[in-house]
Every structure is written in structure tokens, then in C-alpha cells.
Amino acid sequence: MFLNKKIIIALLLLSFSTYCQEREKNSARITSLDEVVVTGQLRPQSIKNSIFEVKVITRKDIERRAGNNLADVLNQLLNIDIFQNASNGKSDINVLGLDGKYFKILLDNIPIINEEGFGNYTDLTLINLEDVERIELVQGAMGVQYGANSLSGVLNIITRKKSNNSWEIQTFFQEETVGKEYEFFNQGRHIQSISVGHQITAKNYINLSYNRNDFRGFLGDFNGKHYDNEDQLRGHNWLPKQQNFGKLLLSHKGENFSAFYKFDYLRENIFSYDSIVRSNFIPATQTSNPSSFDQVFNNQRFVHHLNFTGNFGKVLYNISASYQKQEKKRESYTYYIRKDAKENIEKNLFLSKEVWFSRGTFNNLINTNKLSLQAGYEFTDEFGFGSPFGVNIATGATGVSNSLRNFDIFTSAEIDFNDNFSIKPGVRMSFTNLFDTRFYYSLSARELLKNDWEVRFILGIGTRTPNYDELFTYFVDVNHDLRGNENLTAESGLSTFFHLKKYTNLSDHFSMKNKLTFSYINVNDRIELVTINQTPLQLQYNNIDTFSSKGIALENEFFYKNVQFNLGASYFNIKRILDYDTGKTSNNQANFQLNSNFSYEIPVIKTSVTAYYKYIGKTNRFIQVDGFFENQKINPYSWFDLTTSKKFLKNKIAITFGVRNLFDVTDINTNAVSGGAHSGTNSTVTLGYGRSYFLKLAYNINI
Amino acid sequence: MKKLQIILLFIIAILTSCSKDALFIEDPFVVAFQETSGKLLDIDTQKDIKLIYSETAYEQSIVKIRITTENVLYGRDFITIPAAEGNELSVPININEIENKFQIVELNNSFTDVMKITFSISSIEQDNANIQGNVSHELSDSAYLGGVFYPTIGGPNEPNQVYVDLSSNKETVVRRDIWDLGFYGGEEFRVTINGSLYMAVSALTNTDINSVNSLSVAALQPLVAVGTFDPENKVYVDGPNGNILETAISEISEDDFKNPVYLLNLGVEIGTAQPNTGSVAIAGESRGWKKIRILRDGNGYILQYADLDATTYNEISISKDADFNFSFFSFKTNKIVNVEPPKLQWDISFTVFTNILAQAGSYGFSDFSLHNRKGGVTSYSLVDNTISYKNFTAINVNETLFQESQIVIGSSWRNVFDGTANSNIYYVLKDANNNYFKIRFLDLTNENGERGFPRFEYTLL
């Protein structure tokens, strides 16, 4: 056990002290509400026994919503908002007022590369939900378990690794309207998918799958590609994109040893048809040959993931190794609209990133009945060049290559004082080539009280490291000067969550679950783009902002026979202070949200009906225009989705029909109050493309 | 069950295939003359007459051209190649080509100023063809009727100043860094600075040029520049409207003691960077500073100049030339240099320009167009006019609207964010010989989106 020794020495170095008592076998009751979770756990365990508060989105939930990617399923949750960027087609997550820079998305426990980070700033539309077993969501600082940039929490997507059938073939196609727009070929969203799984032996499983998502864009007031008027109405309101996902999984599940190898491939094309049309009018012939400067962005991503789990004696290990690569290319050309001809084609690779990653955890290093100790390491080597904004980088700077290496060690323990009260302290040390050594601390506690009351407390201290753009952007010309800042320091943050939960069984048919959550997040030295010089105007990223968010949320779930009903409400308040050299400005944002789901299953006719509702109250937020801050108020809006699903032929065929965004939300008005020289710039925020309908037809064969 | 599977596959196959629809009407195929007119007397035994197509020819055919004449005879005074049959000649339209030409050959040196030959397109023998646009080409002695002009600004660094004479359809191109000061050739004793290089100038209290040094002007230097975003800085640059009485350098006085030393910021070099497509890179490194003093010399000027810390100075006499707006001087060559054509031989110019914005003071502009105010040219603009550019004729000219300010066209013709020329604006220009032209800009960039390749059309009214 050479690893044991090393890790124990590391633990001693970290002066980690533990208080031990006799440990007893855990004997928590298993109820129908219990599900096994893995995120942040020492070993897979039930939600009830988990010291962290884990929320699970099941396969069933995903199917009910006919969700194809992460953006499709998350916006229903309280305090989680999904913002879609119509101009580049990306979706970002916002948790308690903090964007994707503070929230990590994991696929089978490891982060996934993306153009702006590793696990962070994830474009949710690029996380496909094919073969997903469940999604686990932990709100609260997870820095000890998952490292930097996970201050507001992590989301872990767990895929299926085995099957109960010898052969399993799942296919579906899904047709969606995009707002009112739909045509078999040119408009709407078209998804096709096939997944073939084979349980080769009792222990070995193979799965191959392919998913194609063809989003034909949202025209809105625009007229698409084949339009030649000079009224700036060519192109799309939301850019069309085509995504292809491929996946291979080889999995072995044994008694003391399991392993899997997974390969994920993504290829995406985003089509940007310029709204500006040049008529190329020839006065001599009084004719035109209209053209536009169009662009196609090509995005390719490979993820190799190898995982081993098992035990050496009593020590349980879980080791993942991964190599990932992402490349973005841009093809730009002059498109002659009437001739359907491309000329002056230019192709360039503007972003290339690779990551070597490994994460290992070792449990039961000390294992008494009262104490269980975990230690682990995480290694990340990220390197590459480019910026997601590729085209804005000065000509000389495109080839700038940078690398970020991290080596982290961490440890945490679960100490059970008795059956009901457990605490989990943890610490992580992070060594990196760019910043000072950083430390992460966490302390969580859980107490199971009488009458099915549960109390959880999670405290974490962590950091957010500056991203590539903040460090290395360089955009300087005669009238602009926008620069990254290599002297930025990591942001430091603290987050605390307190959860009070109660399960009640009112009768055999009627039960409910109520949860009250208090949260507090504080971030210091937040990085903002600020004006460092007025004449000439110079902008640079600097650590100037402090951020704090206080929240309260109440979630209630009711189960009665085949009816499930959820009702939740949350309120959070954000305070930000911008501390310039020249003075301070502060801003308060408050937000109220309400969500409710209703789901009813009628077994006799194998039909389910589900309704989702979420209300987002008036939002007050700080937005930035050219280095100045504006206070922007977004008027209230709500999401309402309705789906119904019916199964036929011994569950082989399932048809799901639904309406998304029943209230037809598109652009929401804002009133931008001047906070700087540029006032009244933003009058609407794009939230959706309106009410749309989908029909999904799935066909499953199990042999 | 099987049936269902087949249907499923079939539906998937349909959904994944592609189609497209079009939202536009195609223009007809057109063959037209590149120019509508030419000078008959400029023909030196023979001349090519160019025909252009609206698009690459997609089938082989011919275009027929009719010849009409006044006081001139085919076969005796001139012939065409290919030869005419009757009063008509046929020129092939070759597949995959975009233009063709025929030749007119003068016989026996017989062309005179009373002769007129007109070629007009009589038929284009192809499907979907139409006769439109420049349907005829007139060879005579009258003024140029108009056409399309591509001023040679020189791409995204915009290195050139271009002077265009509309009535002769000619341009004069000079690099904008070959001169520094211009000495007015008219009545007043005035000196202009080269605003295309973002020069700025400030009078000092001193009249002793040798006593000025970098220490004595250190406090002033940061202010004497273009683009400092200080509204007060407009005093350091020439009035953008081109009024000779609004130069930054005051009238040169007869009394030497009234002529102070000036601190001269030489601005910036022409940019050399290659910007992103659609952007410009007009400004390079700083060109440094000079101290200057200008005196009168009879009906001319004396220029004294030196580097800031020099204790001696150079002196040169510069005489006025009434045929030109300015006599131009360069510190690089220490000589008078040729820049503008004679003042009656150009109408509009293209240049990088120092303009003044109300809130920001002096501000550098690319793609600026000026009319020749000092050469007697005036113009006005028509925005969203009820009369379209096409229908605007001499009877629509409104004499009361003509403005002297040289920046009527200015940058109003272009939209840098879109990279396009504004299609809702056109201009009427009156030259010193009372020729009226209508002018409309067609492009800000070339077809690849690169800046510094504008295009405009104009017609003699």
C-alpha cells in the first residue's frame, strides 16, 4: 500500500486532526424516496445518508421533458437560470446570481473541456443527455472535492454502465417547432438518435450511440440565408446549428474491480449568415449581384475517459484518467446569394485546447466504525491557444499559446458521532504554475432528527481562477484598448448552505417532503472589466468587485398515489460593491422565484401528464457596457411547459407530445438605468423564441 | 411491427434530407457599355470600347450593336473590328467570360470636334436577357457623362490622398505623408497642416525660434494632439469646413514680430499593420515634433523650422502659385513637393481627415471625402429624398442648397459598422465650370470586405 503511506504523510503535513469514536453500522431506513448518489461522496450512498444535500434529476424526469441537452432540463429548477445567447447559440447557467464561471459541470465525475474553461462556463447545449442515468446537483462550495471554480456547486451527469438485457436498442426522433416556425427541412429542430447496448457477459457491457441535433435557427424578424434585400433582415435571430454526438462505452463491472472506457465525440457547426447584404450594384448594367460575408464555426471535441474502481484490501479506490481536446475553426467567405456561390473562402483554426486530467480518490484509509477517511489527488494540464472570440484578437496575438497546470491533493473524512450526527471536514491544497498555492476548506454536518427531520450544514472556502480571456485577451487598435491582465489574482469565496428537510408519510398513499434552505455566498476580489484610463479609453480586467448573495428557498414535494406535485419558492438578494481607485459603486439585486410541477401517471392506459411552471420575478442586475456598469431591470416572466407521454406495444414505443414555453416568452423588456457614459443601450433581453411544440417518437427493443 | 420500423426509417430519412427555398427575383442577363461616353479626339488611331456583362456568361451568344453617326462616315473616316454589316456589328458573348470589347479605328486622321458616333445595343440574343443600363456609348467632344469610379485610396492603411476630376474622369494619387505644410496660393497669407497625418499645431508666446526647446514646451505637448477627447483641442487643428480663415496657424502678418513660433506635432506615420478584414489601420508610429515660424516675403512666405532642441534653424522661401490652392512643403525632403492638381482640375478628394466632434474635439476619420472648396466647388446632400438617385435630373437641382463647407460628403456616405455605403444618401455637386453632377456611393469595401476600396457612381446632369 505505497499510496497509503504517501497520503497519510500528506495528511499529517496538512495537520489534519480527527476526533474518533466507535463507528457503528449505518442503519438508515431505506424509503422509496432514497436514491443512491455519488457526487462528493466517499462511496455511493443514499441521499439520506449523504452529508451533502444532493438533488437528483432522474432519467424519467429527463424523458418527461424530452430533454436532449442540459439546457433543455435545467431551467425548471429554483435559483438556476439558463441564459441563451442567441448570437452564438450558447447557453450559460446562472446559480444564485453567479454565472457558469463558479459552477462546475461534470460528466461521470470528471470535468469536460470547453472553449472558456475546463468544467466551467460550459455551454449546456453541448452536454448531450443520451444514455444518462441521472443528474446529481449539489448546491454549495465543492472546492475540496472538485477544485477551483465550484463555489456555487457542481452538477454531475451519470451515464449508464450496464444493462439488464442482452441487447438494447433505443432509437428516437424528435421534431420541434422553434416558436411558430417549422418545416420538415428548413425550420424547427430535428433530433435523431440511436443507441445500441450489448451486455456481452454478466460483467462486460458495450454501448455505441449517435445523436444528431439539427437546430435550424430562429428567424423571428429575419429572413434566412436566401434573402437579398439591403434592409439588414437577412439571417437569423438565433443562429442555426447542427450537432453530432457519438459515444462509445466499454464497461466491466466485477466484485472487487470495475473499469470503463468512454469516448465522446462532438462535432458542431454554427451558421452565421450576415444580416448585411451588399448589393454589388453595377450601374452600367443596372443589375446587382448581392453578397454577404458569412461564417461557419466548426467545433470539434474529443473526450477519452478511463476509470478504475475497486479495492485493495479495505481501501477503495476510484481513479479516472482523461485526455480531451477541443478545436474551433472558422470558415468565412463571400456568399453570392442569388448564385448560391461561395468565394474568397478563408479557413482558420482560432482555438485549440487540450487537457490531460487525472483524478483519484482513496477511501477507508482509516476506517473505524466512526471514522472514514478519504484522500485524493487531481492533476490537470491544460494547454492551447486562442480565444472564443477569435476574430477580436489582434493579428499578432492569435498564436499565443498558454498552459495552466494544477496538481491538487485533498482529503476529507466522515465522522459519525452516532447514528444520526455526522460531520465531514475537508481540505485541499492546489499547486499551480500560474498562481500562488491555494487552499480549500470545507466543513459539512448532517443530523438526522426524530420524526424524519434532517438538518445539513455545508461550509466551503474556495477560489475562482481567472480564465483565459481575463488573463490574455489583447484587443488594441486606434479607438479601442481592451487587455487581459496577467497579474490577476484568483478570486476568493466562501459559501454556506443550511438545509432543513422533513419527510412525512401521512398514509400509505400520501407522503410529502419539505425542505427549507438558507444560503450565503461571498466572493472577494472579483474580476471585472474596468476602465483604467479615460483618455484614451483603456479597459482592463482587474480584481475590484465584492459579491455576496443571501438566499432562502422552500421546496415541497407531495406524492399521492400516481400524482406528484411540487411547489417551491425562493428569494435571494445580491449585493455587489465595485471598488475603483476613484470611488465605490454598489448595487443590490433581489430576485423572487416560484416553481411548481405536477405529474400524473395513469397506469391503465400507460399515459403520463406533466406540467412545469416557473415564475421569475423582477430581476435587477448589473450589466457591463464598455467598462461601465449599468443597473438593468428585467421584468418578471414565467416558463410553463406541458408534456404528455404514452407507451404502446409492451412499452416498446413511446410517444411524447409537449408544449414548451406556453406563455410565449421571447424578449423581455428591461429598463437600463444609466450607470456610466453609455446609457440606455439595452432595451430587451432575449430569453426564448416563443411557444413551441414537440413530438418525440421513441422505439426501444430489448432482447 | 416490421411495417412500423420501415415507416420510422422512412420518416427519419425524409427529415434528414435537405432542400432550400429562395426569396428573391433574379436580374436579367445584361450586356452594357462600361462607359457611356468618350472623347472622340482622344482616339489615337484606335480605341477599345468595352462591354461588360451583368454576370458571368452562361451560354454562348451574340450582342448586336447599332451605329449612328453625325458628320462622320463609316468606311471613310472610321471602321470597327469586328466590321459592321449595314449599320450594325455583332460581338460574341463567350461563355464563362464577364466582358468583351470591340475596336473603333480612325481612318486618315479624320476625326474633328463636330463629329459624333453613337453605338447602341440593339439586341442580346440570349434567353432572359434585357437591354438596360449603359445602352449606348457616345464618342464626341462634349464633357464626360459619368460612370463608376474607384478612387485609389490604397486599401486598409489608406495611404493615399486621391484628387478626382469628375468632368475628365481622372484621378491624381499621392501618398499622404509626402507633405507637411501647405502655403495658400490665394489672396490670404495662410498655412495649412497635414490633417491626414493627425498633425496639430499651437502658437507659442515666443518669437525667437532658437529659444524654444523641449523643456519649454513640455507642458503643452500632451495637449497639442488629435484625439485627446478634449473639446478645447480644436484650436490646434484646421477648421474642418475648409474655410481658409480658420486654419490653426493664424494669418501670417506683414509685421514679423507678430508672427510667433509654433509648436508643430507632426502626427503619425501611415499605418502598416494588417487589420482584421473590415477594419482600417491608418495610424502608425509618431512622427515627432518641429518648431516653426512663418514670415511674409513680399507675395510669398519664409518658413523657418528646426527640431525642438536645435539651436539653429533652416529657412526656405516659398512663393505663391495662384493656379494651385497650396504650395506644399515637406520636412523629409526640405523641398516644395507636388501634391494637388491645379485648383480648377479637381472636384473631390479622398483622404484620412482630422474632423472635430462637438464633445470630443479633434478626431481622426478614415474614408473622408472633401469637395474642392478653394477651387470654387460646392455641393449638397440629399438624404431619404423623395426623388430617387436614378430619377434625379438637372431640373431637380436646388441652387439654394449648395454649401461651401468642404465636408458635405465627409464621412456621411459610409457606415463603418456594417462596412457598407449608405444607400439612402446622394450628393449634388457643382464644379467651377458650372457642371452639375449627381454622386452616389456604392461601396465602402471591395467584394472581400476589405476597407480602403470605395466605389461611387456619378452622372453629369
General description of the model:
The complex is a heterodimer of chains A (703) and B (461). Chain A is mostly beta strands and 703 residues long. Chain A has a single domain (2-702), classed as TonB-dependent receptor, beta-barrel domain (Maltoporin, Chain A), CATH 2.40.170.20. Helix content of chain A is 5%, strand content 58%. Chain A has a 22-stranded antiparallel barrel. Chain B is mainly beta. Chain B folds into 3 domains: 31-142, Immunoglobulin-like; 148-174 and 344-460, no CATH class; 176-341, no CATH class. Chains A and B meet through strand 12 of A and helix 1, strand 1 and strand 30 of B.
List the helices and strands and how they pair.
The complex is a heterodimer of chains A (703) and B (461).
Chain A: H1 2-13, E1 36-37, E2 45-46, E3 54-58, H2 59-65, H3 70-74, E4 80-84, E5 91-95, E6 103-107, E7 110-111, E8 113-114, E9 117-118, E10 132-139, H4 143-146, E11 153-159, E12 167-176, E13 189-199, E14 204-215, E15 241-253, E16 257-272, E17 291-312, E18 315-336, E19 341-363, E20 371-386, E21 401-416, E22 421-432, E23 438-448, E24 453-464, H5 468-472, E25 474-476, E26 481-483, E27 491-505, E28 510-533, E29 538-560, E30 563-579, E31 584-602, E32 607-616, E33 619-625, E34 628-634, E35 637-648, E36 653-660, E37 667-673, E38 684-686, E39 692-702
Parallel strand pairs in A: 6-11, 26-29
Antiparallel strand pairs in A: 1-2, 3-10, 4-5, 6-7, 8-9, 10-11, 12-13, 12-39, 13-14, 14-15, 15-16, 16-17, 17-18, 18-19, 19-20, 20-21, 21-22, 22-23, 23-24, 24-27, 25-26, 27-28, 28-29, 29-30, 30-31, 31-32, 32-35, 33-34, 34-37, 35-36, 36-39, 37-38
Chain B: H1 2-16, E1 31-33, E2 37-39, E3 46-53, E4 61-70, E5 78-81, E6 88-93, E7 99-106, E8 116-124, E9 136-140, E10 146-149, E11 160-165, E12 170-175, E13 181-184, E14 191-193, E15 200-203, E16 262-265, E17 268-270, E18 283-286, E19 289-297, E20 300-306, E21 314-319, E22 326-330, E23 335-337, E24 348-357, E25 361-371, E26 378-383, E27 414-415, E28 420-421, E29 425-430, E30 436-445, E31 451-460
Parallel strand pairs in B: 2-9
Antiparallel strand pairs in B: 1-3, 3-7, 4-6, 4-8, 5-7, 8-9, 10-31, 11-12, 11-24, 13-14, 13-22, 15-16, 16-19, 17-18, 19-20, 20-21, 22-23, 24-25, 26-29, 27-28, 29-30, 30-31
